[in-house]
């Protein structure tokens, strides 16, 4: 597998997932989410155990919510904390929805990124 096969853009964002891949760095804001995962699976290519950087931007507001006490609670992406893993990743109608466990509370957290643009690529060295 070549590293270029792992380069992902918006059009192929639905082909990636992060099975059993810890999230090393995660930063979310109102219009931008960036993270580095310790691995990536690309449909039709396979699994790569490389540090994988994702940058996802939106011209619309990114929303976040956390599930606790048997209900969803809206959160500002700026204050939502970090994810320790991404368990669900889906693209439908130019909207990205992904979810996983928040790193400190362990609670389920979901992000919705409307009208998104995305790039994903292998990091040459482990991020600091």
The helix tally amounts to 0
Q: How would you classify the helix and strand content by structural class?
A: mainly beta
Considering DSSP H and I runs of 4 or more, what fraction of the residues is helical? under 10%
Distance between the termini: 26 Å
Number of strands: 11
Radius of gyration: 14 Å
How would you characterize the largest beta sheet?
6 strands, antiparallel
Strand content: over 45%
Shape: globular
Reading the helices and strands in chain order gives EEEEEEEEEEE
Q: What low-confidence regions span 5 or more consecutive residues with pLDDT below 50?
A: none
Describe the model.
The chain is an all-beta fold. The chain has one domain. The protein contains no helices and 11 strands. Strands 1, 2, 3, 4, 5 and 11 form a 6-stranded antiparallel beta sheet that branches. It has a 5-stranded antiparallel beta sheet with strand order 7-6-10-9-8, with no helix packed on it. Strand 9 and strand 10 (108-114) form a beta hairpin.
SSE layout and pairing:
Blueprint: E1 8-9, E2 16-17, E3 23-28, E4 32-42, E5 46-58, E6 63-68, E7 71-75, E8 83-92, E9 95-102, E10 108-114, E11 116-122
Antiparallel strand pairs: 1-11, 2-4, 3-4, 4-5, 5-11, 6-7, 6-10, 8-9, 9-10
Q: Can you describe this structure in just a few lines?
A:
The protein has 128 residues and is an all-beta fold. The chain has strands at residues 8-9, 16-17, 23-28, 32-42, 46-58, 63-68, 71-75, 83-92, 95-102, 108-114, 116-122. It is globular and about 40 Å long.
